[in-house]
Amino acid sequence: MRHRLPAYALGGVLLVAGAAALAQAEAERRLDAAIERLRAALPPEMRLEIGGRQVDPVTGRATLSGVVLTDGKGRLEVPELRLADVTETRLGRAEALRVTLRTPEGGTGEVARLLVAGLPVPVEGKSLNLQNITLDALEVEAARIQDPAQGAVSLERLTLRELRPDGVASAAASGFAFRGTQQDPQEARLGRIELEAVTLPVDNADFAPQKFRAGRILIQGAQLRDPTDGVTLGLREASLRDWTPGNAMTLALQGLQVAAPATGYGQIEMSLGRLDVSGVDAAGTVDAVIGGLQVPDPMAGTPQRLSLEGLDARWDGQPVFALGRLLSEASLENGVARGSMAAEGLRIIPPRGYADWLEMLGYQEIAGGLEIRGSVPREGGRMEIAPIRVSWDQAATLGIEAQVDGAPPAPEAGTAMDPAETAMQFAAAQLAGLSLSLRDHGLLGRVLTVQARQQRMPEARLREQWAQMALAMPMPGSPPPGRRGAAPQAKGAPQAAQDPMAPIRQAVASFIRQPGTLEITVRPPKPVAFGEISAMGGDPAQAIARLGISVVAR
């Protein structure tokens, strides 16, 4: 038995050597077949040359050297190309090192490392179509491209996973920069961008926004500058999540700055400290708007919120607009839709020469705030608006509250919109109540002061003239009080009965004489349809009685 062991050992060695030779031959056959298919898939003007190769018979991995791809005067060189998991129909992994590029137009480029995984090899007779390409992974490190006609592009790192023609499963890029030529000196920079589950659908070669989907997008340190057109854009960070139908999207922007020329009006600059949006089915809303359909309802338990802070605008370096904070919220709970909006720190500063009337009144700007609140059942019913409040610092505050019965139900989400039908439904709604208050904080006094100065008369005298004018306000359909030809008043008849406008005139006159708060109330004994109100202009007495109008100065 002992003398047979060397024979068995020799047989084993020969068997392993034979298997290795067969494995290497099979690996090389697959590699050759893949290379030939790639060659056949290239356009006729392109040529692929390979200087040398080494194939590992155990793993099937191959290393190609001196790989050159030429296209007329264009040339791409890969000193070292590592291949793995190669079949006749698929390139499992290809890693190119120290890639250099020369374009037919004289451009140059280099890439320290390029990795491609999961590249399908076109079937025989089919060409390689980059627009429909799919990849399991793509990695790029330290890429630089210089084109004399387009400019220079650099990229520190790029990684893609599951790339397909209409999107990508995940991606990240950092250190992107673009610099144009002297003739077109545009500049762009991007510190970092991250993508997850992003779909960028193209329909007939055009981007289809209604089909855009995104699980997550993060952008940091974005800058764009076009000196020729005077446009600059800067963004510190932007984050978007859940742009998918049926999900509540969240959006956050920080440090947005925009500058651009306004034709004939100089340079406009705008900056935004922060913007947050949450709770909105953004994808479903865009789908509905583009399709002319009813947008999705707010999700139960998830209010739709918008928060904006630090919005400023300048015109040729001069501040013209500012908004300290804006808050908006909408919700649908227990069948009732509620909405609110509040603006704080609102300032409008007209440029010099565009607001003489404002400066004449002693104001340098319009500063104040805005508040709106309301509710309505989704299935229709009473709409409550309480309040709408507009304030102008050191001038006046306007407040409005209203109740409307018979507000139409909101169409179901996704149904076709009919604006004409909606307008008819609102015309049939009924006004149940309305109150309007105007509180003076000095505006009326400033107007009187300016008018008195222009007319060269005492302010008190002008104020009384205005009060007398209010007492003589004409009433549609009848002559004003005291006018010749007016119908004589019956003896002993109450003044309000003889002139239903008298209390209104007296309240306005009292407000002019001593500015405070002027309150106008509409309380009809029975709700009145909006379509009927316009027909009451010819009979003021009937309108005042049916609408229950009263005016009080406090």
Verbal overview:
- The protein is an alpha+beta fold and 554 residues long.
- Among the domains are: 22-150, no CATH class; 166-244, no CATH class; 440-476 and 495-553, no CATH class.
- Helices cover 21% and strands 49% of the residues.
- The chain is built from ten helices and 26 strands.
- It has helices spanning 5-41, 282-291, 356-360, 419-427, 443-455, 459-471, 495-498, 502-513, 530-533, 540-547, and strands spanning 46-49, 52-55, 62-71, 74-86, 90-102, 108-120, 135-147, 151-164, 167-179, 187-199, 202-203, 206-207, 213-226, 231-243, 249-262, 266-280, 304-315, 318-333, 336-348, 366-377, 381-392, 396-407, 430-440, 517-522, 528-529, 549-553.
- The protein has a 24-stranded antiparallel beta sheet that branches. Strands 11-12 form a two-stranded antiparallel ribbon.
- A hairpin with a 7-residue loop joins strand 9 and strand 10 (187-199).
- Helix 6 (459-471) runs antiparallel to helix 8.
- It starts with a helix and ends with a strand.
- Mean pLDDT is 85; it is low at 1-22 and 483-497.
Q: In a nutshell, what does this entry contain?
A:
With 554 residues, this protein is an alpha+beta fold. 21% of the residues lie in helices and 49% in strands.
Helix content: 10-25%
- For the secondary structure, the number of strands is 26
Rg result: 38 Å
The major pleated sheet works out as: 24 strands, antiparallel
- Which strand-content bin applies to the residues? over 45%
Give the overall average pLDDT: 85
What characteristic shape results from the CA principal axes? elongated
Structural class: alpha+beta
Secondary structure tally, helices: 10
State the end-to-end CA separation.
125 Å
